[in-house]
Amino acid sequence: MTHEEIRDLLDVYVLGFTEEPENREIEEHLPGCAACSTFLREAVALASAIGATAEPVSPPASLRRRVIATVVPPRMMSWPAVAAIAAGLAVAAWLGVANRRQGVEIAELRQDYAEQTRSLQRYESAFSFLRDPQTRPAGLRGRPAAPSGNYYTNPKGGILLIASGLPALQPKQVYEMWVIPEGQAPRPAGVFRGDEGGGAVHYQPDVNLTGAEALALTLAVTVEPEGGSPAPTTTPMIATRVTGL
Amino acid sequence: MQIGPDLSLYIAVASVLLRTPDDRDLITRLQQRDGSAMGELYDRYGRLVYTVVLKIVRDPGAAEDLVQECFLRVWNRATIFDAQRGALGVWLATVARNQAVDYLRSVQSRTRRDAGNIDLERIAATLDSAEDRILHLTEVERVRAALLRLSDKQQELVHLAYYEGLSQSQMAERLKQPLGTVKTSIRAALKKLRLELQGPVQS
Prior knowledge:
With 245 residues, chain A is an alpha+beta fold. Chain A has helices at 3-13, 22-29, 34-52, 62-69, 79-95, 100-131, and strands at residues 136-141, 148-153, 159-164, 173-181, 187-192, 200-204, 216-225, 237-243. Chain A contains six helices and eight strands; from the N terminus they run ααααααββββββββ. Chains A and B meet through helix 1, helix 2, helix 3 and helix 4 of A and helix 1, helix 3, helix 4, helix 5 and helix 6 of B.
């Protein structure tokens, strides 16, 4: 194809409209052609402009918390704390909402309670992953001394870690799981916290690996600053080599 | 076609449609893994991402899951974003459309279109934002008006390609038209859209 023919196709190429053999020709042509690459960049911008013209729809208010919770896990509380909050709600309800201040307190309690419910949902989703017959242990690792843990993987994607003996976290620290395809840099696979005894359950539902990457990889955990790091900054723990997810 | 005055015009228009002033600071914080930046990112672009995703998948439950995935993806890939040049909204709109169309294709058991060796999200993360132009959100109306100036048929084609993610052979089948006709018509539609958008950018 000529430059002009390539450029003519780029607006529809970025939408996934073109098929073979055009796609291959475009993909072979572009890396070596700065001029046509400019048209590709314009095509990407044009496509996003089409999306921006859609009549805006407001998402449900709860979605904001869900999005934030994917990177900043809600604070964990013990069962007694959950019970205390539930009791607090009952007492507050019994007293009645006599004034504004009480209303605010109840709202805060409800919010804490909702956070707890979400934590429990995370555990439930982890356990339902565990119950799936295709889920299997990826190996029992870690040095004989703490920390240690089991990773569970599933061909449909997803990694679950049940760990114990993890070192205590300082304030503003989290554990971060890593997926390290052979010969590649570690990729973040979610941050989590544990309980006071050094135990933790972390479930990362979506791990985007290509077929080749899933064949040989290492899973590991490090301690990182709150929010996680793009690359490990401390010594990896519970490093486990996996062949074939 | 020569590289003329329209060079980077679409990029400029899209950047403006999809940019707020202090995105640069926000992206820097995302790149530093500052969890508090996620809330701000969502406040600025949550509605855009939800709108695009919902319009594609037309299922509020699935749309919520996909929005969550989009933001996680942006968080995990924050380092590819060029804070000096890029427009966050262009990037988010591109990620949103990609994720939603992939989902739609998977539930409809249609062929997944792999991006091959070209990472369109990476391109969207590094577009020049033509900062010398003073542009405003009225540009949304400009693009909307340009879309409305396409014929009904052309609008339908753009809709099927953008929101349904149909490939050329799928679209030919859907419209019961010859493949060649479909290919020619949609290219003409997008070309017309480009032409409609040409001219001095409103300030």
